[in-house]
């Protein structure tokens, strides 16, 4: 599984260019920026895995978010890939509120939910569980604690900040989390992890 944030994809860019050999299910939420570049998220899931895209309700059409379900053995996972752009404060407060509502609505109660992506919340201290009270950082941190999620990235992913997160309500199902060198010209590090399967 490959999760991409700030994919910069748009309607005129076919998925076949991402996957010319048709080896992946390609799930996309393209950026909708008329006058600037950036944004968008996508997921590439090997066709060796089961994969069912989860439709995002129209209520949350402004979010840059992909979601899919996959099953390993008898256990189901729901993966979310999210990008939250660094914007003006008021827009960010509204965006985070919408995002939390969407995640609360779509998170699984009968399996693991795994949330990855660039949330641009570098002000959160994940070790001491404290953050600025700005309606963005504290909103994300509070819901993480309240919903029983663990944040598994422990090293900075851009400069000195942890901007790229790996959140899950089943931390024992995720292992070997590591921060790797950026891919190509990206200014963010890669996050690699494994899903732990029971026999």
Q: What does it look like?
A:
It is a single chain. This protein is of the alpha+beta class and 199 residues long. It has one domain (2-195): Deoxyribonuclease I, Chain A. The protein is built from two helices and eleven strands. The strands form three sheets. A six-stranded mixed sheet has the order 4-5-6-7-9-8, with no helix packed on it. Strands 1-3-2 form a three-stranded antiparallel sheet, with no helix packed on it. β6 (75-83), α1 and β7 form a beta-alpha-beta unit. It is globular.
Walk me through the topology:
Layout: E1 2-5, E2 24-29, E3 41-46, E4 52-53, E5 64-72, E6 75-83, H1 89-106, E7 112-118, H2 137-146, E8 150-151, E9 164-168, E10 174-180, E11 190-195
Parallel strand pairs: 6-7
Antiparallel strand pairs: 1-3, 2-3, 4-5, 5-6, 7-9, 8-9, 10-11
């Amino acid at each position: 599984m490959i999760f991409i944030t700030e994919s910069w994809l748009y309607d005129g860019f076919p998925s076949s260019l991402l996957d010319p050999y048709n080896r992946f299910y390609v799930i996309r939420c393209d950026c909708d920026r008329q006058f600037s570049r950036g944004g968008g998220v996508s997921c590439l899931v090997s066709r060796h895995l089961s994969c069912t895209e989860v439709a995002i309700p129209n209520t949350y059409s402004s979010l840059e978010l992909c979601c899919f379900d996959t099953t390993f053995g008898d256990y189901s996972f729901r993966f979310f890939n999210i990008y939250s752009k660094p914007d003006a404060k008021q827009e960010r407060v509204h965006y985070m509120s919408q995002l939390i509502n969407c995640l609360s609505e779509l998170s699984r109660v009968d399996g693991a939910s795994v949330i990855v992506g660039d949330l641009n919340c570098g002000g959160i201290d994940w070790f001491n569980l404290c953050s600025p009270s700005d309606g963005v950082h504290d909103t994300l941190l509070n819901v993480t604690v309240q919903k029983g999620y663990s944040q598994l990235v422990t090293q900075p992913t851009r400069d000195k900040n942890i901007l790229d997160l790996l959140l899950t309500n089943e931390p024992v199902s995720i292992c070997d989390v590591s921060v790797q060198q950026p891919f190509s010209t990206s200014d963010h590090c890669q996050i690699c992890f494994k899903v732990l399967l029971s026999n």
